[in-house]
Design goal:
The protein has 3 helices and 14 strands. It is of the alpha+beta class. The chain has 2 domains: 73 residues; 158 residues, Rod shape-determining protein MreC, domain 1 (Thrombin, subunit H), CATH 2.40.10.340. A 6-stranded antiparallel β-barrel has the order 2-3-6-5-4-13. The protein has a 6-stranded antiparallel beta barrel with strand order 7-8-9-12-11-10. The chain has a two-stranded antiparallel ribbon with strand order 1-14.
């Protein structure tokens, strides 16, 4: 007892500490207290919390989707512009290739014409005589004269009929007022190639007994004093009897695509045409 009196503070403190530990142990083992009001509030607000979470997720998805779409749209615009540029380059390169091919053919044909030859561009067509006349970009200022022959790498085109200062009209060989002295290359039968009202051309004034067949090649004879001799006109595609069956008429398919002409050559009457050299025959016993 004397010990307890002297150490009563320490003893009381120890007792209170032991009681606190005992109560804490009992509260941990026992079932926690359930607050009915808290349960009601939690039940009432749980749908709102779910809705808030759904809205939050939706806004988050919409925002990141918007950011993605903005980036995708910008990338699509860039790709679309790049595709357009590449398509433009392809068209430009294709046009350059065609121009180079046409000019190369024209240079090769020009090398076979000995004399004064001038190149001209086709800049228009007569709307009243479609496929029967065209306009070129040379005129009287370029010392052009009416009546000059107009050729293309494929053969005869027509002749100059009207002059302006900077442009001229060319009457095509398919015009029914045209006339070109011609011969059948194989048999040398002579006639006149004239245009028809239908926009074609035919070789007239062939004697009935001359040798002419479908598939024969017709070239200029040079007798008209306009076109050089030996220039290709076209191919015979049909033969009929004319003038009470006394003469033959051969329908000709022009060798030049008149509707597609972009460049032509205008030649003086003194120009000489050197036909291309024939292919050399293969040596006997040598396989091709």
């Amino acid at each position: 007892m004397e010990f307890l009196r002297r150490n009563r503070v320490l003893a009381s403190t120890s007792v209170l500490l032991l009681l606190s530990l005992l109560l804490l142990s009992i509260s941990v083992r026992s079932r926690p207290y359930q607050d009915p009001l808290a349960d009601v509030i939690l039940f009432a607000f749980s749908p709102l919390q779910g809705a808030a979470r759904w809205v939050q997720r939706g806004v988050s998805r919409a925002w990141f989707g918007y950011v993605y779409l903005v980036g995708a749209h910008a990338e699509n615009e860039h790709l679309r512009r790049r595709v357009a540029e590449l398509e433009s380059d392809v068209i430009r390169l294709g046009e350059l290739e065609q121009n180079n091919s046409r000019l190369l053919d024209q240079l090769k044909f020009r090398a076979r014409l000995q004399g004064e030859v001038r190149g001209a561009r086709v800049v228009g067509r007569d709307p009243q005589h479609w496929f029967r006349s065209l306009i070129v970009d040379l005129g009287s200022d370029d010392n052009l004269r009416s009546g000059l022959a107009v050729l293309a790498p494929g053969g005869v085109v027509g002749r100059v009929t009207e002059l302006g200062r900077t442009a001229s009209r060319v009457m095509l060989l398919t015009d029914n007022d045209s006339g070109i002295a011609a011969i059948v290359q194989r048999s040398r039968a002579a006639g006149i190639v004239q245009g028809t009202r239908e926009g074609g051309c035919q070789m007239n004034y062939l004697r009935r007994d001359v040798d002419v067949k479908v598939g024969d090649i017709v070239v200029t004879s040079g007798l008209d004093g306009i076109f050089p001799k030996g220039v290709l006109i076209g191919e015979v595609v049909d033969i009929t009897l004319e003038h009470r069956d006394l003469l033959l008429s051969a329908r000709i398919e022009p060798s030049v695509r008149l509707a597609e002409l972009e460049e032509v050559l205008i030649v003086e009457p003194t120009v000489v045409h050197d036909p291309p050299a024939p292919l050399a025959p293969l040596d006997e016993g040598v396989e091709p």
